[in-house]
Amino acid sequence: MKIRAAVLEEFGKPLVVQDVDLAGPKSGEVLVRLHACGVCHTDLYTASGADPTGYAPAVLGHEGAGVVEAVGEGVTLVRPGDHVVTLFAPECGTCLHCLSPRTNRCLAIRDEQGQGHLPDGTVRLSRGSEPIRHFMGTSTFAEATVMPEIALAKIDPAASLAGACIFACGLSTGLGATMYTSQVERGATVAVFGCGLVGLGAIAGARLQGAERIIAVDLAEGRLAMARAHGATDTLLGGPDVVQAIRDLTGGYGADYTFEATGNVHVMRQAVEAAREAWGLATMIGVAGKGETLDIVPRYLITGRRVAGSSFGGVKGRTQVPLLVDRWLAGEIDVESLLSHHIRLDDVNHAFDLMEAQDGIRSIIHFD
Ligand SMILES: [Zn+2]
Ligand SMILES: [Zn+2]
Description:
This protein is α/β, with parallel strands linked by helices. It has 12 helices and 18 strands.
């Protein structure tokens, strides 16, 4: 079938929206008609050429939500008509990592996915005789996509797909970091550095976990106001004095849990230093630039602070994304306030401009 899709032709150049061919689903694969897709920093990072593992031509996009249109042979996990969120981090349910409650790092298809292929080593995207690679196993800047069934989370059809799509990456990453990776407990003190979609998700997650004090840090007053609306009890403008300010707000100790959601390695260091002596846990969520390293004075660790990292918030996608969506439907998460711009696929490059200008929290592409 012919679909409209946004193709990364050349690094550092705008994406080109065009007609491409999408082949039908093979064994274990599913054809999804996309209704909405968020535009995430990782799409921009890859389009810019900064990601050393990037490749072109490829159809970008990984924050999609849609409806199953057809399934390939042997598919049992979803059926036509199901509402689904796309997962760049699949959940096979049977590998060593899927069987462990400690991680969401499914081992099933990562090698082929990393090369832009579906699990059988081939692609479904092309134009004429030229193959086009898939991005993050998802390629959701398109009217439709073909994905492995283990990379789709079936959600309650009562959820609007325009809101559901941000559970495919940014929002679940923030929520999950507090709920699954760090497991913030009731009464805890929390500090969140960076109040974009991921940081706001972490703030909402800390609130849902019952944290008593949630300190939000950002450089923009507008984002700090958003942070308060999502559950922050205190807000601080970022800067060199912020570690001391967090200690002052927590009885001199630092926060039980800190989260870094900017990707800036200097802020990561502050997140470590703002974690409480004796048991503070600093969780790195933001993606640092190529070759950058995190500086930690070892004394901070010897005296009891710990450092963790979180990818997709530690969320096991197929089983836990539907639970997060249910909490939105129960009125516990204000998803609508996070959807700041609603655009068409043809305007995807404008969404990148908005992101670089830090205008809004998330731009959502609508396909219908
Ligand atoms: Zn993303
Ligand atoms: Zn697995």
